[in-house]
Amino acid sequence: MDLLPFSAAHATTVATWPVSAAEVAMWCGRLEFPVAGETVAAWQRDADVTARLLVEDERPVAYGELWFDAEEDEVELARIIVAPEARGRGLGRVLVRGLLGEARGSGHPDVFMRVHPDNDRALRCYRGAGFVPVGPELAKAWNAVQPVDYVWLRHQ
Q1: For residue 27, what is the DSSP state?
Q2: SS (H, E, C) 77-139
Q3: Angle at which helices 120-128 and 91-105 pack, to 10 degrees?
Q4: Which keywords belong to this entry (predicted)?
Q5: pLDDT tens by residue, the chain, 156 residues
Q6: How far is CA 100 from CA 3, 30, 40, 96, in A?
């Protein structure tokens, strides 16, 4: 299993992984279903975003991003998804640990994630990878400008 830089050539593949509109909302907060490959490719144009693809036997099986914020001296793990046929095998946790290693290697001391409150499977995965909820006041402040009240997690 390898964690590789994301290539726009895989954008259409990754865009097909959410299997419902509800899953799209939990994955990336968008309302469109299905997600267009161009949407996924466009995410890479932000200089502060680094995307990775978890590959098994030359097949993409999971995708995730690191959002670097030099001003806040932190990294956010985002838009994590596992291919439908690869789910239930612990690959989400493998991906998160790989992303976390890159985030820690960047020198930023804080690593966060936000998770849709209905995404129980993701919450279990991230807690299993060492993430814990931020305090309620911080979560409230961060959620003030969000479309839903996300569960905000910080890596310990």
Answers
A1: H
A2: EEEEEECHHHCCCCHHHHHHHHHHHHHHHCCCCEEEEEECCCCHHHHHHHHHCCEEECCHHHH
A3: 50
A4: Acyltransferase, Transferase
A5: 999 999 999 999 999 999 999 999 999 999 999 999 999 999 999 999 999 999 999 999 999 999 999 999 999 999 999 999 999 999 999 999 999 999 999 999 999 999 999 999 999 999 999 999 999 999 999 999 999 999 999 998
A6: 12, 24, 21, 6
